[in-house]
Here is the input.
Amino acid sequence: MVNEEKFVEDLVDQDDDFSKWYNQLVRKAELADYAPVRGCMIIRPYGYAIWENLQHHLDTRFKETGVENAYFPLLIPQSFLTKEAEHIEGFAPEVAWVTRGGGEELEEPLAIRPTSETIIGHSFSKWIQSYRDLPLVLNQWNNVMRWEKRTALFLRTSEFLWQEGHTAHRTFEEAEERTRMMLEVYRALAEEDAAIPVIPGRKSENEKFAGAVRTYSIEAMMGDGKALQAGTSHNMGHNFAQSFDIQYLDADGQRKYAATTSWGMSTRMIGGIIMVHGDKSGLMLPPRLAPYQVVIVPIWRKEKEREAVMDMVDRVEKMLRGKVRVKVDRSDNTPGWKYNEWEMRGVPVRMEIGPRDVQNNNVMLVRRDNRAKEPVPVEALETRLPELLEEVQKAMYQRALAFREQNTFSTESYDEFKEIIANRGFARVKWAEDSAAETAIKEETKATLRVIPFAQPEGGVQGKCIYTGKPATCEAIFARAY
Here is the structure.
């Protein structure tokens, strides 16, 4: 008999304490650890491998839309940040400053970038002279620093990794098209690669990015019913162009201000993957982003069986190299320990190879998402395994989508709205865009307006706003959020 004892008993149950479950799992699965500096994190190799895979998929999607990568400095002069008043006001509480260098006081304090609109705006003003220089479509993969008071690994840390895209265009309409295009890239990445269903739409005036004319986001529901902003795209209009004098000579001979955009997705997406897909046994990673898609566990009871089993393991590993991301667990731990360990670490498919499998020239495939077992002939593995991984990918998306639908409620009653929020679900309500009412709801319920979905009722919204009683102009999603 295989040792079936549980090795994840010290992982608290999600239903008892979701936050504690999350924090324990991030460290137990060796994704990340706390850094000596408050609010910062150390991303361990297993966690960084997820980021590398996410980065690869996203970068490929970017380049398909004409994006080019560049890099801009970490340090930003204070004078740059003060040029766009709304922008600096929005970020002022989170900015970390460098005031000394080489033992001497700096003439001008330097901000450790909280985001790069200002320094990139400065560069754009030098590079853009004619309409022929437009559009300029750049992205950088980098780190940023925001001095957060309350932090959680991956979800909200003072320093984090992300990509930030920045573009300049001839017209507001062209900038709007790019802004929406990049949000669609994020939606595709979230749903097709991370298997996370998201709601794309527009942010309210209260929730939009500091300095933006419009902000769009994709919102995802976590396993506890809370929301996570998984990616944002901002149309800056002419605001930054006017502040940084980004002008160009148009074809009609007139000098005009460019319209700019910015858009970003960060390592918080890893936190989203953990919280959307994880269960009481640990991580459940979507095959497209998992560091290892398959883990091979050799099994034998007698030492004389070992050589034949390992010969077959080596043969299968060699066959699969370059076709799937495969890991062989060659440790001396028991098979039961290995099963639980790799289940906790979320590997999509476990492959068991024992003496009987050697005799039959079969392997046993075990899915992480539903634990279904399937014997597969070795000669069929190269075909069947990629198919199975895609089946797991789609099943994980459908599972998450069903959970979101079960926990999203439409209501026209504010009392019922408060119950939905208290029970940590999404509330879809009729809404008359009112910043004061939005603030009042946040104070009363701790819920924020997450997104005004693109998908609105055909023929427009009929009825009254759930809070003000004014004629509703749209439907909106409210929820408590990370």
Summary: The domain at 408-479 is CATH 3.30.110.30 (Translation Initiation Factor IF3). The mean pLDDT is 95. The CA atoms of residues 374 and 476 lie 44 Å apart. Residues 381-406 form the longest helix (26 residues).
